[in-house]
Amino acid sequence: MAHAGPKLSPRLGPRLGWSLAALLPLAFLGVFFAWPVLAIVALGLGEGGVLPALARADTWDLVAFTLGQAAAATVLALVTGMPVAFLLARCRVRGTGVVRAAVMVPFVLPTVVVGLAFRALWPDGGVLPIVLANAFFNVAVVARTVGGLWARVDRRAEDAARALGASRFRAFTSVVLPSLAPAIGSAASVVFLFCATSFGVVLVLGGARHRTLETEIYLRTVQLFDLSGAAALSLVQFAAVIAVLVIGGAARRKREKALPLRIEPPRRPTGGEWGVVVAAWLVVLALLTPVVGLIVRSLATDDGWSFAGYAALAGTGERGTLAVSGLDAALNSVRTATDATVVALLVGVVSAVVLVGLRRHRSWFAETLDTALMLPLGVSAVTLGFGYLITMDALPGDFRTSPLLVPLAQALVVTPLIVRIVLPVLRAVDERLRQAAATLGASPWRVWWEVDFPLAARSLLAAAGFGFVVALGEFGATSFLARPDAPTLPVVIARLMSRPGELNSQMAYAACALLMVVTTAAVLVIERLRAPSGGEF
Amino acid sequence: MFRRVLTTVTAFALLTGCSVTATETQPPGARVVTLVTHDSFALTPELLDKFKGATGITIKPLASGDAGEVTNKLVLTKDAPIGDVAFGVDSTFASRALKEGVFAEYASPEAQKGAQRYQLDPPNRLHAVDVGDVCVNIDVAAFKDIGEPKGYADLADPKYKDMLVVEDPATSSPGLAFLLGTVDEFGADGWTDYWTRLKANGVKVVSGWEEAYTQDFSGSAGKGPRPIVVSYASSPSAEIGDDGAARTKALLDTCYRQVEYAGVLNGARNPEDAKKVVDFLLGEQVQADVPGQMYVYPSREGVALPEAWTKAAPLPATARSLPAADVDAKREQWVQQWRMLVQS
Asked: B133: part of which helix (H) or strand (E)?
């Protein structure tokens, strides 16, 4: 890259180079997101009837409820996720590795299962369980995104503040919190978008009373085939999402700056820090409650405890109720998630590097790319799925029914997460280090490899692991695509859930347990790769 | 550090070996028929293997959502179909699919062995593969003392207050079938009045069958609080206790019939082989397989039901159904009316 092309003027050169590198994420977003979504919305607009749909009073109720529940769930996820982030990033306490894996488990559980678990506690559903369930899914996003930066923030400023007589709380609010702000902002935008487009949870817990833009778009597209009504609501959803992203981005940018980054080894908590650790444990305990409930369900029968569900899952069900065994489905899940993660890492890392490079030149282009990358999180899965149907046949080999379409659709969801985790760390890399390297004659590529990459490598791995887990559990986009019959675990769970009989429901819960085991194993493997060792840098 | 990164990169390179791209691809010249289906589609894998052995045709199922979603996807892609055969368009959505010209004409010889009873259109583009009746199910034990409800009218009787759970017709296919059944029973003018009475009698509405049956219903493994639920005629076959008696039963006066159809798609890449697949779906072996795999009844005559079914879940002798064209024309309006009425 650095050796190619003619010499450009030093002011123009880097900017052009970054813009060229930006073509990869832009092309990916353009082909697999913008084109299908715009095509299906255009089809709806072509039918007319959009303005009347917008003028209906209940459209604005939908908007209000959608944004309201998402905001509440985001606040809750932030409040509960911060202590966990602190524990993961800062504390050397026995069992933290387990916590790291446990926090990720909720993320892969199918929404219908979580919805049912919360319904067991609130049989009539309602707003409170919707908010709780959405927060339940997203504590991991906060813990991971904020924890990733927190582990890098230099403790010395904080320690200096304490030495100068600041209370622990004061040191936290005036020293630590400002430096974490970019990651907190990142996490908040991601969580907000996840909650604003949450589908299964609202359907199960909202019953027939609470509806969001997402559930209404699904209803109009899939059940009523009212494409113009769906297009109108999609436009409203776009507008709301872009507004949220712009506000969030502006808030983030005000605070992003280079921080003195170091690898801070975790310490034993002291004094009041134990209070935070205990709070984190309580949060994890609360997260694990529904999980334990699921495992109990997988073992309980009318006549006591039994492993029948697990035994049946090892085969293809007692009366051959499944086309593949549970283990095959687990393998299919791992395969798909691997593909999604590889694509998302490629696109995500290039995007993050480009964004950092462009930011040094303060360009509107960077802001736009940053927002564009987040958009797929805020757009209805059913819109995307139906959009693929009317566009992807133009790609070679009728891509609509290709097994690759599922991981690519998942990569759209995973990429923004990877960007959000890696970007704060890359942005915080001290420019002076880079300048020093450049002065010593390193090419831009070499600078990146020697300075940025080592500092960001571990958060890259964390991001990859996180992305893998998200892809494992992703069911939204996946469920609206035409899928060649290689059922993944979430698909198998949904299939078993929709059948009567004790054994089928036991098998469904056993499949959930298997999904959790696969997730935990994946997280532990990745932790092993990240384990700090001497002589890293 | 760098060594570790290299390890990771290598690990990923290896992992891509276990990516979906590594799954088997068809050799060129293979005869493949893509079967667009609903998500509940399932057949014993050996049957598909046998079919391939006999004809050389590989069936590639393509799961595409529930009946409504499948229909709408087929309509949306009718100029460039995503498969050769479709299975899962049901009587509720059939007339939309026919009107849009999604299916091609085909007179299957196998269709004359029972499926013709559910024929929708003279040229016979759609073939009935199975029949699934949506009926009210009750938890038998709960009614030992007060007597079982018999039909729709009883559900609004204060004797059975707060006992019924139903699915939202806007988001659930059995929910819609139950609504259509009440329209059939009470007429286009009377059904709203009936639902007003149901509401006063404490009916609970949930969004899907899973919540209603596995959580709210007292007769299933979930042991919920409500002994009356909208489910299927076949559900009691899965609730037989160790004593051999079914814990639940379907109220045969409340059944609404949904027929699931298959047909060759217009513009199929491989119409001749597609016809063979339709014959296969209507054939003896698949028909005997559908109860165990999909909890529905075969459309073919003279196919024996599994033992649990003959005991606990016989096919209702009579079931309601509204003309497909009426349903297509009024469904949205009925669902909207229902929403205003029940959710306000």
From this structure: strand B127-139
Proportion of chain B in helix, strand, coil states, percent, rounded to 5:
45, 20, 35
**Any chain B CB within 8 A of the CB of A308?**
no
Q: Rounded to whole angstroms, how far apart are CA atoms A146 and A48?
A: 45
List of chain A residues whose C-beta atoms are within 8 Å of the C-beta of residue B215: 116, 119-120, 123
Q: Which of residues 336-355 of A touch B (CB under 8 A)?
A: 336, 338-339, 342, 345
Residue contact A338–B18, C-beta within 8 A: yes
Q: At what angle do helices A57-90 and A96-108 cross, to 10 degrees?
A: 160
| Rounded Cα distance, A76 and B97, in Å | 46
CA B291 to chain centre: 12
Asked whether the beta carbons of A115 and A497 are under 8 A apart, the reply is no
Identical fold between A17-47+304-531 and A60-298: yes
Best B2, B210, B232 member to test A by mutation, with max A CBs in 10 Å, is: B210
Superfamily of domain A17-47+304-531: MetI-like (1.10.3720.10)
User: Could you say which of B76, B209, B214 has the minimum Cβ distance to residue A386?
Assistant: B76
Measured from the Cβ of residue A362, the count of other Cβ atoms closer than 10 Å reads: 9
pTM: 0.88
Are A136 and A198 within 8 A, CB to CB?
no
Q: What's the token pair of residue A69?
A: 């529940």
Whether A389 sits inside 8 A of B73 (CB atoms) is yes
The domain ranges of chain A are 17-47+304-531, 60-298
- Closest by CA to A145, choosing from A178, A90, A184, A88, is A184
Q: Cα separation of A510 and A352, whole Å?
A: 39
Of the options 3.30.43.10, 1.10.3720.10, 1.20.272.10, 3.20.20.70, the CATH number for the domain spanning A60-298: 1.10.3720.10
- Contact A407/B242, CB-based, under 8 Å? no
Contacts of B235 in chain A (CB under 8 A): 500
Q: Which helix (H) or strand (E) holds A314?
A: helix A308-314
The reply to whether residue A338 touches residue B16, judged by beta carbons under 8 angstroms, is: yes
A223 vs B63, B64, B68: nearest CB: B68
Q: Please list every residue in chain B whose beta carbon sits closer than 8 Å to the beta carbon of residue A115.
A: 211
Q: Are B5 and A458 in contact (CB under 8 A)?
A: no
Of all helices (H) and strands (E), which one includes residue B165? strand B164-167
Q: Which of chain A's residues have a Cβ under 8 Å away from the Cβ of B82? A: 389, 393, 398, 400-401, 482
Residues A315, A321, A322: CA angle, nearest 5 degrees: 60
**pLDDT by position in tens, chain A (length 537):** 344 444 444 455 566 777 778 888 999 999 999 999 999 999 998 887 777 777 777 888 899 999 999 999 999 999 999 999 999 888 888 888 888 888 888 887 888 888 888 988 888 888 999 999 999 999 999 998 888 888 877 788 888 888 898 888 888 888 888 888 888 988 899 899 999 998 889 988 987 788 899 999 998 898 888 899 999 999 999 999 998 888 877 777 766 666 666 667 788 887 778 889 999 999 999 999 888 888 888 887 777 788 888 888 876 555 555 666 778 888 888 888 999 999 999 999 889 888 887 766 666 777 788 888 899 988 998 999 999 999 998 888 788 888 888 899 999 999 998 888 888 778 777 778 888 888 888 887 788 788 877 877 777 887 888 889 888 888 777 788 877 777 788 888 888 888 888 888 888 888 888 888 888 888 777 777 665 432 222
Cα A466 from Cα A190, distance rounded (Å): 13
